[in-house]
From TrEMBL:
Alphabetized GO MF terms: aldehyde dehydrogenase (NAD+) activity
Stored InterPro entries: Epimerase_deHydtase, NAD(P)-bd_dom_sf, NAD(P)-dependent_oxidoreduct
Protein name, as recorded: 3-beta hydroxysteroid dehydrogenase
Lineage: Bacteria, Bacillati, Actinomycetota, Actinomycetes, Micromonosporales
Any one GO cellular component localisation term in the record: cytoplasm
Native source organism of the sequence: Winogradskya consettensis
Domain NAD-dependent epimerase/dehydratase residue range list: 3-215
PANTHER family: NAD(P)-BINDING DOMAIN-CONTAINING PROTEIN-RELATED (PTHR48079:SF6), PROTEIN YEEZ (PTHR48079)
């Protein structure tokens, strides 16, 4: 299968590209800089120069492909306005790709996030949040999944709060960055709230499996660790960086504060049984031991 991918040189994307190429697929990667172009080509992919805002370029990439994987997102969480702008840009790109694929029955795998449900693990049948800081992404994913009725084999790969590799990535990586900047390995609330996690190399396998065989209009959970307490995550970060571990105000985490403070464990039992996906790489707490002081 010839696969067009956005975000193909990021933490998750580079793992997905390697997984696709290692399993007999070819890759056309959207790249927006000389550095990302070089990285994608060194990995073995062909490249198409452009960003998420270049809708004509993105549509041309989709037109050339047997399937599409969308991973790119403008990860600016500095303000609510910046997040909203990133969501709007992503929405236009996703729907542009979807329109290009209508009537073709080609697969379109979209990155999404695991929902949170009060008092229990979230599952693949739970609905995405449609309000709040990332509610716009949920509405976009739902609209893309509805394209299944128009001949697009859309699937949503729901990623947990932390996708990690070698101690970096996701909310765990953000906590590490904030700890380095503030001098405290902090966590919101009492720290008992749980975050799910997955290693990037395991997530990449699920993207490939979904692209190859998942039915149209379905959602899947890329969850290896159902939920680690945030204070346990902060404790490893603090020990690796030789910093104190303390609760800090939720407001210190900016627009993501309410999400950071939420208890959001998640299950992947249905995904594992149905697609035969089985995570094999280190857990988040194990991987954070790779943080360099």
């Amino acid at each position: 299968m010839h696969v067009f991918i956005t975000g193909g040189t990021g933490l998750i994307g580079s793992a997905v590209v390697a997984e696709l190429l290692g399993n007999g697929h070819t890759v056309l990667a959207l790249t927006r800089s000389d550095a990302s172009t070089q990285a994608a080509e060194q990995a073995g992919a062909k490249t198409l120069r452009g960003g998420l805002a270049d809708l004509d370029v993105i549509r041309s990439g989709a037109a050339q492909a047997d399937g599409v994987i969308h991973l790119a997102f403008g990860n600016d969480f500095s303000s609510a306005e910046a997040v909203a702008n990133s969501v709007a840009e992503e929405t236009a790109a996703i729907m542009g790709i979807g329109e290009e694929l209508i009537g073709s029955d080609r697969p379109f795998a979209i990155v999404s996030g695991t929902p949170w449900v009060a008092g229990r693990l979230s599952t693949e049948t739970d609905q995405l949040p449609l309000e709040g800081p990332v509610g716009g992404r949920g509405r976009t994913v739902n609209a893309a999944l509805e394209l299944a009725s128009r001949g697009v084999r859309t699937t949503a790969i729901r990623m947990p709060r932390t996708v990690h590799n070698n101690g970096e990535g996701g909310f765990g990586g953000l906590l590490t960055q904030i700890a380095r900047q503030s001098g405290v390995s902090g966590y919101p609330g009492d720290g008992t709230q749980r975050w799910p996690a997955v290693h990037a190399l395991d997530a990449a396998v699920l993207f490939r499996l979904a692209l190859e065989s998942a039915p149209a209009g379905t959602a899947w959970h890329a969850v290896a660790d159902e939920g680690d307490a945030v204070r346990d995550i902060a404790a490893v970060i603090g020990r690796r960086l030789s910093l104190p571990v303390e609760p800090v105000p939720t407001e210190n985490f900016g627009p993501l504060g309410p999400i950071f403070a939420a208890d959001q464990p998640s299950s992947s039992e249905y995904t594992r049984k149905t697609l035969g996906w089985e995570p094999k790489h280190p857990s988040l707490l194990e991987d954070l031991e790779n943080i360099q002081p």
